[in-house]
Amino acid sequence: MMPKHCLLGLLIIFLSSATALEIQPAHVSLTPQKVRFQSRNFHNVLHWQAGSSLPSNGSIYFVQYKMYGQSQWKDKVDCWGTTALFCDLTNETLDPYEPYYGRVMTACAGRHSAWTRTPGFTPWWETKLDPPVVTIIRVNASLRVLLRPPELPNRNQSGKNVSMESYYGLLYRVFTINNSLEKGQKAYEGTQRAVEIEGLIPHSSYCVVAEMYQPMIDRRSPRSKERCVQIP
């Protein structure tokens, strides 16, 4: 629920234009702190912390965004007067190669802060990738490993989700762990999503993990959860 002592601040914001607000006195102690994008699999969310004089639940926040080179800031309607400390800007930052900016302002009890702006944010460079989803199928004494990259919010003109490979030259790395010997090794590195692993020791238990590697920017995902199977 919105704090009662902040209702006056909300009314003032909505009765005034953003331009008018920018020329009124700003209160430094209200200024949002650590305004930054956090991005995972191209889901781009703006985060911030409350100003030094207010608890996290004592302020109302207003969010704007723009692409590099644009002169006008755009309001994020869903985050205009929010009490949350984050705002999902995924749909406003869909081009992974373009730099974007976000900014946040605080209002409370008739006072407001200055805008606090993020550094430039380019999704392609800064997003973090989750590990691939791994499925293993035992075929006699060998394993068939199926890899699926994380789903992205981006869609093509046909409305289908765009694949992670459309943006990165991804390499998949598959590792096997022989639980009997407590020994692991790389079994595959390449671009294929379906991998055959042979030469396994009979009557042994194996676990499989995988990761994705982005050679263009020398970055890798975390490793997937272990998937284990017994070799007859």
TrEMBL record:
Keywords: Disulfide bond, Receptor, Repeat, Secreted, Signal. Residues 1-20 form the signal peptide. GO terms for molecular function: cytokine receptor activity. It is found in: Secreted. It holds the Pfam family Tissue_fac. Residues 31-130 form the Fibronectin type-III domain. Receptor for IL22. Binds to IL22, prevents interaction with the functional IL-22R complex and blocks the activity of IL22 (in vitro). May play an important role as an IL22 antagonist in the regulation of inflammatory responses. Belongs to the type II cytokine receptor family. GO terms for cellular component: extracellular region; plasma membrane. It comes from the Eukaryota. This is Interleukin-22 receptor subunit alpha-2.
